[in-house]
Amino acid sequence: MRVLAFAGLGVLGVVVACAGALVQDGWFPGGLLLALAGAVALFHGGAVATRSRLGAAVPVILWFVTVMYLSVSRPEGDFLFAAGIGPYVYLLGGMVAGVICATLPRRSPGDTPGARLGR
Fold first, then answer.
1. Short-list 30, 32, 52, 31, CA closest to 101
2. Could you tell me the pTM of the whole model?
3. The dihedral formed by the CA atoms of 92, 8, 35 and 48, expressed in degrees to the nearest 10
4. CB 83 within 8 A of CB 33
5. pLDDT tens digits for 83-111?
6. DSSP structure string for 49-102
C-alpha cells in the first residue's frame, strides 16, 4: 500500500511540474504564485499523508526532473520556459520549497500543542 502511495505522489509530481510549466508564465505573476502554491501543497501534503520525509522527497525529485526536461530547448526550437525571471523563480522556488518540506522535523503524536497541559 505504501509503495502505491509513493508511486501516486511521483505521478502527481510530474503532473504538477507540467501544469506549473504551462501556468507560471501564462498568467504572470498570478500564475507563478499558483504554480508554486500547487508544488508546495503537493510536497507538504505528501509528507503529511505518508508521515515520512520520503513522502515529500519522491514528488520533489520527479518534479525537478520533469521541470529540467521541459526547460531544455528542442531541435525544432520549441520550449516551455522563456528567458525571464518567472521560470527561474519557479525552478528555484520549487526546489527551495521541496527541500524545506522534505527536511521539516516530524512531530511525534505526543508533541501536539497542549498535550502536556493535562499532566
1. 52
2. 0.81
3. -80
4. no
5. 778 888 888 999 999 999 888 877 665 55
6. HHTSTHHHHHHHHHHHHHHHHHHSPPTTS--SS-SSHHHHHHHHHHHHHHHHHH
Q: Is the previous residue joined to 109 through a cis bond, with omega within 30 degrees of 0?
A: no
Distances (CA, A) of 88 to 10, 35, 68: 23, 13, 11
Q: Could you tell me which residues come within 8 angstroms of residue 51 by beta carbon, excluding any fewer than 6 positions away?
A: 106
pLDDT in the model for residue 117: 55
- For residue 2, the SS3 value is helix
Q: What is the mean pLDDT of residues 18-32?
A: 85
Residue 108 is predicted with a pLDDT of 60
> Residue 39 carries which side chain, given as an amino acid letter?
A
